[in-house]
Amino acid sequence: MQKNSVAVVGAAETTKLGKIPDVSVIGLHADAALNAMADAGLTPADIDGVATAGISPVELAHYLGIKPTYADGTSVGGCSFMLHVRHAAAAIAAGHAKTILITHGESGRSRVGAGGFARAASSLMGQFEMPFGVTSPPTMFTVPVLRYMKTYGVTEEDLATVAVIQREWAAKNPRASFKDPITVDDVLNSPMIAWPFRMLMCCLVTDGGGALILTSADRAKDFPNKPVYVLGTGESVETPLVSQMYDFTSSTAFKISGKKAFDEAGIKHSDVDHLMIYDAFAHLPLYGLEDLGFVKPGEAKDFIKERNTAIGGKLPLNTNGGGLSYMHSGMYGMYALQESVRQMRGTAAAQVEGAKISVAHGVGGMFAASGTIIFTNEK
Amino acid sequence: MARILPEPTPETQHFWDGAARGELLLQRNKDTGEAYFPPRPFCPKTGSRNVEVFKASGKAVLWSYVINHRPRPDMGTEPYAIAVVKLAEGPTMMTNIVGCPQTPEALVLDMPLEVVFEKMSDTISLPFFQPAKA
User: Fold this and answer.
1) Average pLDDT in the B41-67 region?
2) Is B98 in contact with B129 (CB distance < 8 Å)?
3) Given CB 3.0 to 4.6 Å as the disulfide criterion, which of A221, A289, A312, B117 pairs with A300?
4) In this complex, do B66 and A145 lie within 8 Å of one another by their Cβ atoms?
5) Cβ–Cβ under 8 Å, residues A38 and A28
6) CA angle centred on B121, ends B119 and B125, rounded to 5°
């Protein structure tokens, strides 16, 4: 992709976040889409490309009355929206569409119009993981972590510290679900979910959505809001079975996706002003910081403990409070992208002053997939 | 509530047939000798179809785990470990650890384990692992 050739010109979350029992899944997609169109000064007639995950792009297009020349239904879990941005940038550059809408909506808490999590007993997960008692993500995403902890001397306190610092960021965000301060002891005394993971090390389960609108950079200046350019992109997939990760102490998909994005952007890690790492659980920022190359393997725990990622630190991380405190509907990647766009527009609740480059890094499934988008507000 | 059980496919039938006989069957690349799991009719490293099924040693070490404190209804009412073992032949495999308290104190990473099969239905036996006797 030619860097900075495509820009985000519309971005919005659903009108409400958290508990939304009166809106179904497709309704959340539509609410976010309409808000993003209003943000960009567009109507459905202006959109000629659609991308979404969770529901089909067919459902999305027809519900909004869009007749697109481009549709992307890539669905690899919570980072799908990073992949949609990447694919949309390529599609716009190739001329497949001019103005692409990417939506997310999920009734994670209220489960209104939502499907189940069932896996076929004949799938690889159905045969080789389900029989051993895995349930939802807290008993799958967490499985490799004891090996990581033993390898690098990471403690339960280190995991708890991730949640504590993100809560400090959440306190600055009026839309965050949880804003009250917590301590390491609070985290370590919260209910046990799947040892060594306690409740406050696990993401929220909420309702909400978000949408982005992308177009070519040469058109971007005609829109009402400050354009946010796509500087670099990466994606990869690894395994549908967490038990078959190539390395339990590192995500191969993170490494591949991150390197591709940094190479495309042509930037150094020290150029990054703001970082989002999809945090479904407290270990993900640790893996992310290491696998993206911000620190060496095993160094992330001290990097966080020394408050480098906290308010006032040199690498502000998960400034909305993250999946641990802001919101987590199921496929959180969209909210990481939204916060990066807000930071680049200069409109974030916990704004990083003067930030020019933001990285939004996502995970899909249980270390199954990854997507990385690097944004800038300078062309 | 009946335990959730696997439904074999043509590519995995041999594994579950072996388990029902009390044998842990892996596959390996006949050219390189490298073992792999889960079953598929080709080597995931090279793409070669020149592979064979063989009986594994059943030896492993405890590689990683969580202890699920919110049991799935078919798994009973007590917390249980969802474990991954590293087989002596190289691959990792998800399983449960039996014959051992389901506590962090009893479940120590890298402890030696051996396979044991438990019959769950007429056609399905699940491979579990227990602390090695020797």
Assistant:
1) 96
2) yes
3) A289
4) yes
5) no
6) 35
For residue B88, the distance in angstroms to the closest alpha carbon of chain A comes to 15
Nearest to A147 among B68, B71, B109 (CB): B109
- Which chain B positions have a beta carbon within 8 Å of A130's beta carbon? 4, 6
Q: Which of B92, B121, B125 to mutate against chain A (most A CBs within 10 Å)?
A: B92
Could you read off the pLDDT of A259-288 as tens digits, one per residue? 999 999 999 999 999 999 999 999 999 999
Give the distance from residue B9's alpha carbon to the nearest chain A alpha carbon, in angstroms: 6
d(CA B120, CA A158) in angstroms, rounded, equals: 40
Residue B1 has pLDDT above 90, yes or no: no
- The shortest C-alpha distance from B17 to chain A (Å) reads 13
Closest-CA residue of A relative to B105 is A195
pLDDT at A379: 86
pTM above 0.80, yes or no: yes
Q: For residues A98 and A107, give the distance between their C-alpha atoms in angstroms, rounded to a whole number.
A: 30
Span B10-20, average pLDDT: 97
B66 — phi, psi (to 5°)?
Answer: -125, 160
Q: What is the ipTM of this complex?
A: 0.93
Nearest by CB to A133, which of B5, B16, B82? B82
CB-CB contact of A147 with A248 (8 Å): yes
Are A144 and B84 within 8 A, CB to CB? yes
Residue type, A299: E
- The whole-number pLDDT of residue A117 equals 63
Instruction: Please judge whether B80 and A133 are an interchain contact, meaning their C-beta atoms are less than 8 angstroms apart.
Output: yes
Q: Which residues of B98-124 are buried (b: 16+ CB within 10 A; e: fewer)?
A: eeeebeeeebeeebebbbbbeebeeeb
